[in-house]
Amino acid sequence: MSKELVIKAKNGNIQALNKLINNHKELAFSIALKHLKNKEDAEDIVQNSFIIVLESLKNFRNEAKFSTWLYKIIYHECLKELKRKNITVEYLPQFVEVENNEVNFENILNLKNIFKALKPNEYTVIVLFYLEEKSINEIALITSLSKANVKVLLHRTRLKMQQAINKKNIQNER
Prior knowledge:
Elements: H1 2-10, H2 14-36, H3 39-56, H4 66-85, H5 105-117, H6 120-131, H7 136-143, H8 147-173
Helix pairs in contact: 1-2, 2-3, 2-4, 3-4, 4-7, 5-8, 6-8, 7-8
């Protein structure tokens, strides 16, 4: 689906280009916001990243997934912005997807707090792996980490999240 949209967009189909952007804008914003901590900066980075995509789309060769390429651009644009501003970041994720009608708001709040405690690189690999279903190879491409580092980071982040959940459960039992 995405490959077809990319081909159409490369050939000048505005609807295909709009669909590509709409399919990826929420997660792109979420990743930028996590790193930049500021809504306006995140919006600017996402907008600039999509401009880079527009300018470079003709050179995109479909060797990687479009989403992998886009998230790599966003990730590196965020890093450039952070270096420019010399900022350290942590921010609450802007989304928790719930498919069940019976929502346990305490669990959602706990999950948001767990995400809030993650470092930006931890947040990025967890979101890309579990929510975007990216492979280790794709995450390595996006983040410029080695595959081994991605695996270690995923493992450590899972442990960190599990410890936070266990700690919260113990506190709730008291």
